[in-house]
């Protein structure tokens, strides 16, 4: 593990960079939540997102 | 001044813990009462606040003792070392998680673990509309903007060392 921190902003930038828009990202979260709910949570934890915001994203 | 009982209560510690802290020199109370009971000053409590903070970061009493005496540069060094230890512990736990998953080989259990496998990621990225080329681009961007996090991410989805090297090689 490195000490380099990847956060939500960096992740979103990365996705935008390769051409994913807001709507696609929302769809992506929904797919993720449907197929792998615990993996989704784990991923959002990894991005250091606050618990409240994680709940909102998972309920998209 | 505060008695040992008051300090123990304030920090949810046992009296014996405070006596131990005193015996090893981490926190020696500034005063004694007429009947020779330990008395803690405001300064001692401030020190106790720092001790609690360092404890919550998982530092040993030995490291804390050093920290309380030294300058801030020493603090960074000790915290960085602690971070490295935590990182290697996480890595070790991931490895155990992988082994257990292999042993279980049970789809419903897999679904409920927090491991996101490479296959899951590829499926999820495809669901977002990314094709092969899009995924290559994603790795290239990831490697460009955050190389260390890229490696960390690849480790977290359970890739073997060789495969990680290969991906980082073509994406850089």
Summarize the structure in words.
The complex is a heterodimer of chains A (60) and B (172). With 60 residues, chain A is mainly α. Chain A contains 4 helices and no strands. Helix content of chain B is 72%, strand content 4%. Chain B has 172 residues and is mainly alpha-helical. Chain B has a 3-stranded antiparallel sheet with strand order 1-3-2. Chain B is built from 10 helices and 3 strands, in the order βααββαααααααα. Chain B has helices at 4-10, 15-23, 42-56, 61-69, 72-104, 107-111, 118-127, 132-145, 147-156, 161-171, and strands at 2-3, 31-32, 38-40. Classes of the chains: A mainly alpha (60), B mainly alpha (172). Chains A and B meet through helix 1, helix 2 and helix 3 of A and helix 5, helix 7, helix 8 and helix 9 of B.
Compact description:
The complex is a heterodimer of chains A (60) and B (172). Chain A has 60 residues and is mainly alpha-helical. Chain A has four helices and no strands.
Task: Quickly list its features.
heterodimer; A: 60 residues; mainly alpha; 4 helices; B: 172 residues; 3 strands; elongated
Architecture blueprint of SSEs:
The complex is a heterodimer of chains A (60) and B (172).
Chain A: H1 8-17, H2 22-35, H3 37-46, H4 51-58
Chain B: E1 2-3, H1 4-10, H2 15-23, E2 31-32, E3 38-40, H3 42-56, H4 61-69, H5 72-104, H6 107-111, H7 118-127, H8 132-145, H9 147-156, H10 161-171
Antiparallel strand pairs in B: 1-3, 2-3
Helix pairs in contact in B: 8-9, 8-10
Radius of gyration of chain B, CA atoms, in whole angstroms: 25 Å
Question: Considering DSSP H and I runs of 4 or more, what fraction of the residues of chain B is helical?
Answer: over 70%
The average pLDDT of chain B is 83
Mean of pLDDT of chain A = 83
Q: How many helical elements of chain B?
A: 10
How many β-strand stretches of chain B?
3
Query: Could you give the distance between the termini of chain A?
Result: 31 Å
Order of helices and strands of chain B: EHHEEHHHHHHHH
Strand content of chain B: under 5%
Distance between the termini of chain B: 62 Å
